[in-house]
Design brief:
- There is one protein chain.
- The chain is α+β, with helices and mostly antiparallel strands.
- The chain is about 45% helix and about 20% strand.
- It has a five-stranded antiparallel β-sheet with strand order 4-3-2-1-5.
- The N and C termini lie far apart (about 40 Å).
């Protein structure tokens, strides 16, 4: 059950505070909604229907600092999930992004970091789609980690890289 005043992560959208429960009338139907106010976007508000379990399922409590550390230990020595086929890779990586699963996102970012380093050794660059996926993974991870760890978002990728052992 969500409680008013809780600070939560909503899908891949960011950090929100559950401000209140309100009723909204849409057409001839009245329903109850959680009102989520963005932590860092001044006017961003999400109205979340209390009876929509799919959307409610996207609301997650923030990790604690110790949970972040445990997660980074868990993904240390991760298996590379790189897929050679561009189309399949893009599809799988997009699914990971949409899932918002923190562990998978870190594994994804680590895999792309590793591939990026391999490409640099061959004087090549990542594809544009891989760069976009990496940036989006970093954005999603950075929102929560920066808030919880009280560090700048731009410092999160370096923080993660320094805490995991990439094969």
């Amino acid at each position: 059950m969500l409680c008013i005043g809780d600070t939560v992560l909503f899908g891949t959208e960011g950090i929100f505070v559950i401000d209140r429960i309100t009723q909204k009338e849409i057409g001839d139907k009245t329903a109850d909604y959680y009102v989520l106010k963005s932590h860092d976007k001044d006017n961003s508000v999400i109205y979340l229907p209390l009876d929509n379990q799919m959307l409610i399922g996207k609301v997650r409590p923030l990790l604690t600092e110790s949970e972040i550390c445990a997660l980074l230990v868990q993904v240390s020595d991760f298996d590379d999930i790189w897929i050679a086929d561009n189309k399949l890779r893009k599809e799988k990586f997009q699914n990971i992004l949409q899932s918002g699963d923190r562990e998978k996102l870190i594994r994804l970012a680590g895999t792309i970091y590793k591939h990026q380093q391999d490409m640099k050794l061959r004087h090549r660059k990542l594809s544009l789609s891989d760069e976009r996926i990496l940036k989006e993974a970093e954005r999603i991870i950075s929102i929560e980690f920066a808030y919880v760890l009280n560090i700048d978002r731009s410092d999160v990728p370096q923080y993660i890289q320094s805490h995991i052992n990439m094969k």
